[in-house]
């Protein structure tokens, strides 16, 4: 583990390193939780996929029949023959070979023009807005974190796959746990980060919240340490409920590897309602066409594989996936055959309980805000529906004053 100072490890915003915010657990610990208190039958599960960098929505859901699109991107635009047709106006990026079948099956919703008032072109500020659901002012809590605060102290209600807890999963009193996937054991983690649970007068309020939530979840990790130390990790175990299938075809698809872990957690009955995974690399200022196609092919492979694993599973049939990025890109291509930071973009929602099709009005490609798309859907309305219909929460406690859009059954 890289040596970091106390402040770096207890930062109250952005990414929390090494799972400090909610504690780190191993797959064996989670499997024990699944045996002792499995997720209730019919309970919904939300999987949040964050695409870092600002995914270009116009190259994801392509308005191939719009002349304004081709005029703005004469060399970057996809032709009608290159995309998978969603209807007679829009098509999916040619890298998305599997998700077009989900569209045809009616289990794929595209929410168009999603953004927020007074958009910010900064990666950091825009992602902070999306993850805190607070466009008007800075907030130290994420939208999932506020749900955690309101629903008790169970440390496995939300899990982040990897080595970080994003801002969205950090609350004032509770935060998501990290599912260790690379051989981290409970005793090793406790030795490395245990001293950080000790109060310090120099800690900020946010740092104190992270520290206290880690201390609470550390109790669970210690209790079940005998089950996890020396056992298999989530990335290697192939025991009961352990594998979604052959992984030799994944190559370097990091998102697929994360979603494989999520699939295993869901199929064993882990009492987790929200999972967070991510993929970076979407800041396509140059040579976008090939770069984004490869990235979206990875997204497509990962999601298709995951949804296939969920399709025949009792719990999987109540799982919903949301895919978002911090902003879209500008309408006009730049001189490097890429696109610069923009505003609104599509949010993708997938699963058996989804009302497939388009939702929300499509932003005009000619009536722009200084070259940017004008948002037609507030992202907090997306959260409102997911919280109420999938997570089973009171959405008004997290995103007050919002409403459902109707993309879920």
From TrEMBL:
Pfam families xrefs: DUF1501
Comp. bias regions, Low complexity: 228-237
Cited PROSITE patterns: TAT (PS51318)
Coiled-coil portions: none
Region Disordered: start-end pairs: 227-249
InterPro entries: Alkaline_phosphatase_core_sf, DUF1501, TAT_signal
Organism superkingdom: Bacteria
Name this protein carries in UniProt: DUF1501 domain-containing protein
Organism: Gordonia asplenii
């Amino acid at each position: 583990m890289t040596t970091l100072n106390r402040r770096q490890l207890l930062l109250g915003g952005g990414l929390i390193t090494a799972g400090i915010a909610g504690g780190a657990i191993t797959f064996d610990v989670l499997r024990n939780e699944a045996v002792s208190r499995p997720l209730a039958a019919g309970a919904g599960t939300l999987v949040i996929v964050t695409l870092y960098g600002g995914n270009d929505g116009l190259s994801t859901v392509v308005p191939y029949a719009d002349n304004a699109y081709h005029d703005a991107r004469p060399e970057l635009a996809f032709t009608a023959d290159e995309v998978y047709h969603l209807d007679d106006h829009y098509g999916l990026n040619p890298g998305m070979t599997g998700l077009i079948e989900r569209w045809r099956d009616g289990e794929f919703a595209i929410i168009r023009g999603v953004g927020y008032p007074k958009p910010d072109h900064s990666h950091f500020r825009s992602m902070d807005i999306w993850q805190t659901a607070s466009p008007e002012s800075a907030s130290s809590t994420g939208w999932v974190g506020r749900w955690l605060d309101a629903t008790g102290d169970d440390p496995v209600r939300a899990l982040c796959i990897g080595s970080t807890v994003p801002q969205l999963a950090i609350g004032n009193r509770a935060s998501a746990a990290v599912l260790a996937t690379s051989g981290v054991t409970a005793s090793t983690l406790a030795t490395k980060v245990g001293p950080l649970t000790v109060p310090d007068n120099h800690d900020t309020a946010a740092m104190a919240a992270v520290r206290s939530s880690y201390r609470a979840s550390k109790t669970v990790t210690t209790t079940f340490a005998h089950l996890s130390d020396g056992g298999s990790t989530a990335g290697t175990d192939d025991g009961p409920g352990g594998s979604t299938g052959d992984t030799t075809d994944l190559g370097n698809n990091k998102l697929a590897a994360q979603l494989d872990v999520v699939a295993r957690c869901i199929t064993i009955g882990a009492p987790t309602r929200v999972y967070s995974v991510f993929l970076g690399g979407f800041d396509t200022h140059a040579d976008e066409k090939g770069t984004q196609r490869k990235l979206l092919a990875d997204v497509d492979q990962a999601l298709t594989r995951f949804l296939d694993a969920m399709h025949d599973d009792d719990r999987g049939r109540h799982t919903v996936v949301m895919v978002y990025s911090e902003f879209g890109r500008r309408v006009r291509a730049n001189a490097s055959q890429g696109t610069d930071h923009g505003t609104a973009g599509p949010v993708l929602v997938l699963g058996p309980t989804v009302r497939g099709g388009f939702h929300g009005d499509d932003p005009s490609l000619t009536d722009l805000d200084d070259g940017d798309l004008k948002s037609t859907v507030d992202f907090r309305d997306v959260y409102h529906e997911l919280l109420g219909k999938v997570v089973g929460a009171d959405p008004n406690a997290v995103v007050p004053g919002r409403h459902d859009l109707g993309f879920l059954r």
